[in-house]
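Sequence design from tokenized structure. All designs in this work follow the same two-part layout: the structure record, then the generated sequence. An example of the structure record is given first.
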């Protein structure tokens, strides 16, 4: 009986040793690791950025009829240039330092004109998905609303987000994309 248990124990040890060796070679930790890494490496082509063709003029993203409709929808309710848009950095919703004087000037103008209802329209540029830009525009509008409330503007402030679906500027250029990364003020009186 003792002899049979010794043979069984030696058999189990031998099986364990062979199993351990087999597992280590499968996991890549054995001598064949370099060969395995060479076989598994996938060479992907580099992404090549192709700039849009330079036609001498900036190209528009929308038709002239749609531009006219969007321009009418983007009106502020006050004479042009009265309220400035608050601009944001790419993929950011935090207020820039150059936005603070714009916000304070807009707040003074709104108080002076006796505005009681205001809509803050958050927007994004053409980069990213429509859903992501809706969320980003909402965060931008809410940050502007919080700042205006902190400086004591006591008007009915509503926020909305159009993301990239209602641009203020229609060309495909850096200046235009900067204008679209904004919060636009619309007087609702």
């Amino acid at each position: 009986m003792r002899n049979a248990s010794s043979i069984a124990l030696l058999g189990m040890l031998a099986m364990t040793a062979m199993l351990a060796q087999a597992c280590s070679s499968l996991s890549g930790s054995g001598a064949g690791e370099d060969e395995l890494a060479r076989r598994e490496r996938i060479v992907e082509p580099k992404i090549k950025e192709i700039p849009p063709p330079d036609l001498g003029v900036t190209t528009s993203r929308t038709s002239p009829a749609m531009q006219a409709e969007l321009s009418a929808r983007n009106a502020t309710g006050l004479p042009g240039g009265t309220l400035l848009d608050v601009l944001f950095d790419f993929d950011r919703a935090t207020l820039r330092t150059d936005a603070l004087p714009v916000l304070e000037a807009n707040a003074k103008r709104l108080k002076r004109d006796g505005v009681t209802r205001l809509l803050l329209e958050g927007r994004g540029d053409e980069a990213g998905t429509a859903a992501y830009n809706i969320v980003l525009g909402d965060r931008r509008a809410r940050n502007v609303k919080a700042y205006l409330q902190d400086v004591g503007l006591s008007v009915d402030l509503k926020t909305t987000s159009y993301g990239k679906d209602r641009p203020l500027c229609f060309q495909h250029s850096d200046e235009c994309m900067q204008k679209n990364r904004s919060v636009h003020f619309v007087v609702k009186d």
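The longest helix spans residues 2-27. We note this feature because it recurs in several other targets discussed in the main text.
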